[in-house]
Amino acid sequence: MLAIPFLHAQQPTEEQLNKLAEHMDKALGVRPGATIADIGTGIAVQHPIRIAGKVAPGGKVVCVDVEPSMIRRIQKQIDDRHISNMQAIVGKDDDPMLPREAFDAILVSNTYHEFTQPDIMLQRICQALKPGGTLVVVENYSIAHRAESRTAQAERHDMAPDTLERELSAAGFVVKERVEPVLVNSADRLRYLVRAERQPQ
Question: Across-strand partners of 183?
Fold first, then answer.
C-alpha cells in the first residue's frame, strides 16, 4: 500500500486534480490500444475523454450510466468533440451491460457506493474484464465514520477502503494497490484509489 502525506484541509488545486488523474491512468494501465470502460460516468466526462485520447490509436473507451438522459448528455459531448473511439451505453443497477472479456481495465470513480447489489455488479465487471484485467475504484470516505455499516456509509456517499477491499476479495478480485489519500476533500473526507485484478483463469 502506498501512503501519501496527509494534506491540510482545502479545496483541491488543479495540481492535485492532475495528480489524481495521473494515478488513475497509471493504475488503469492507459496506453495506446487499450480498451477501457468507465462505469457510472455521470457528469465527470473529463476522465473518459482524457483516457480516450491516450488509448488512441486502436483503443476504445465505453462510458456506462443507468440514466438514459445522462447517456444522451455524454454522447452529445462525444459527438461535439468528434471523438471516434468513445461511446456511451445505458447500464442497469445490477449489470453494466458490457460484453464478456472485452476490456483491459474498468474504472469505477465515485460510483461504487451507489451499487445496491455490489456482489452481482462485481461479478458482471469481472466477466467484462479480460483474464488478468484491472479494476480501479476511486472513492471517498469520512475518517470519523469509516467504521459505520455499509448502508450508513453509502447514505453519506462514502465507502471506506477496508469495506471496499473486503467486497473485492469476496468477489474473487486480487487487491494489488491502495493509494490513500489521492485527494483531500476536507478535514474529514479523503479520496482514495484501489487497484485490483481479475484472477487469470
Answer: 191
Look at 39 and 17; give whichever has higher pLDDT. Answer: 39
Global pTM? 0.91
d(CA 22, CA 30): 10
Secondary element (H or E) of residue 21 = helix 14-28
Q: How many CB atoms lie within 10 A of CB 149?
A: 10
Number of domains making up the chain: 1
Residue 146 maps to which CATH number? 3.40.50.150
Q: Is the peptide bond before 181 cis (omega within 30 degrees of 0)?
A: yes
Instruction: Taking each helix axis as running N to C, give the angle between helix 14-28 and helix 46-55, from 0 to 180 degrees, rounded to the nearest 10.
Output: 50
Cβ distance 15 to 190 under 8 Å? no
Residue with cell 468533440: 81
> E-strand spans in the chain?
2-3, 35-39, 60-65, 86-90, 103-109, 129-142, 173-184, 189-198
pLDDT in tens, 117-160: 999 999 999 999 999 999 999 999 999 999 999 999 999 999 99
Distance between CA 75 and CA 83 in Å, rounded?
Answer: 10
